[in-house]
Amino acid sequence: MFARLSAKALLLTAAAALVFFGVGLLGAALASVLVALLGTPGAYALTGALMLLLAMLVVGLVMRKPRRPPPEANTFIPVLLGALAKDLPWAAVVSAGIAGVTGMLLRRNKRPAKD
Questions:
Q1: Which of 70, 54, 71, 51 lies closest to 62, judged by CA?
Q2: Taking the mean position of all CA atoms in its chain, how far away is CA 93?
Q3: CA atoms of 2 and 85, how far apart (whole Å)
Q4: Alpha helices in 1-115 (DSSP H)
Q5: 44 with 31: CB under 8 angstroms?
């Protein structure tokens, strides 16, 4: 187990190094292309700004979480019964029965009242 974890850690380190140096070399290449147009300070500034904006965009996309759907109105009782069932084994059987009966009562077809 320790050998697998060590191997994964080494692979992760190697991948991080490849990404780090790859991005650095891409930035250096872009800066050297822009030196003729903007001069050395302008090329480095533009390259740094572009790479910073790209990194911020990637972080923003990764950190964005999808919205959770709003909770249903009748979820209190199942949650309460589930929490009770975690602690007491006999309560699991009782709560399953209660949840089944409640589900049957809520799903049954109600007949329209006759006048």
A1: 54
A2: 34
A3: 37
A4: 2-63, 76-87, 89-107
A5: yes
Q: Which two tokens stand for residue 70?
A: 């709003």
pLDDT digits (tens, 9 = 90+) for 88-109: 777 667 767 777 787 777 777 6
Single-letter amino acid, residue 44: Y
Per-residue pLDDT tens digits for 47-102: 889 888 888 888 888 888 777 776 565 666 667 666 766 777 776 677 677 777 87
Q: What are the residue ranges spanned by the domains of the chain? A: 1-65, 76-107
Best CA proximity match to 102, nearest among 80, 78, 86: 78
On whether the CB atoms of residues 30 and 50 are closer than 8 A, the answer is: yes
Gap between the Cα atoms of 77 and 93, Å rounded: 15
